[in-house]
Specification:
The structure is a single chain. With 166 residues, this protein is an alpha+beta fold. It has helices at 3-15, 67-80, 110-136, 147-150, and strands at residues 20-22, 27-33, 38-46, 51-61, 85-89, 94-102. Strand 1 (20-22) and strand 2 form a beta hairpin. Helix 1 (3-15) crosses helix 3. It is elongated. The relative contact order is 0.17.
Length: 166
């Protein structure tokens, strides 16, 4: 077990997150109840290169007929992100959000590990309603769908987290 994998396990324990280890791999899986949906998460550690990657998976499957507008949504969203990126597995229609960090050797900050997890879950939860709107659009109406306009809909966003000042 690499020191980074041990740090990831320790972070999940300290945060009180339930998880499953994948036997014979430096991988843990977990399910998170977010604002819009329950999201599966996969954290993989590459110990020799000091890399940890958190991947949240959307539970909605994108039909092949709807993949182009979904790709436009993901591209437009990725352009605005500072951490991580959205991906579409073209063959399966699965949408993923991946946040990765390269750590300095033997300096595995648990706050960064937790932040990777939080970012992956929050970003996928934020985008899920937009994905759903596109997926529910009838095939014959997709040409009329304006993804840029859809992205302006604030009613699909989860509420902003409360701050200590509120």
């Amino acid at each position: 077990m690499s020191a980074l994998y041990a740090a990831v396990l320790s972070t999940f324990k300290e945060m009180g997150w339930h998880y499953r280890e994948v036997p014979e791999h430096a991988v843990i899986e977990a399910d998170f109840e977010a604002h819009h949906t329950k999201l599966p998460l996969h954290v993989q550690v590459f110990g020799e290169t000091h890399i940890a990657s958190a991947v949240a998976t959307c539970t909605l499957q994108v039909p092949s007929t709807h993949r182009l507008p979904i790709c436009e949504l993901l591209m437009r969203t990725n352009r605005e992100l500072n951490i991580g990126n959205f991906e579409l597995d073209w063959e399966t229609g699965t949408v993923l959000f991946r946040a990765t960090n390269v750590f300095p050797p033997h300096r595995y900050d648990q706050r960064i590990i937790a932040s990777l997890v939080h970012s992956a879950i929050a970003e996928m939860d934020r985008l899920t309603p937009f994905l759903g709107e596109i997926i529910r659009t009838p095939k014959g109406e997709l040409l009329l769908l304006k993804v840029a306009d859809l992205m302006l809909r604030e009613d699909l966003l989860p509420p902003a987290p409360e701050t200590d000042e509120e």
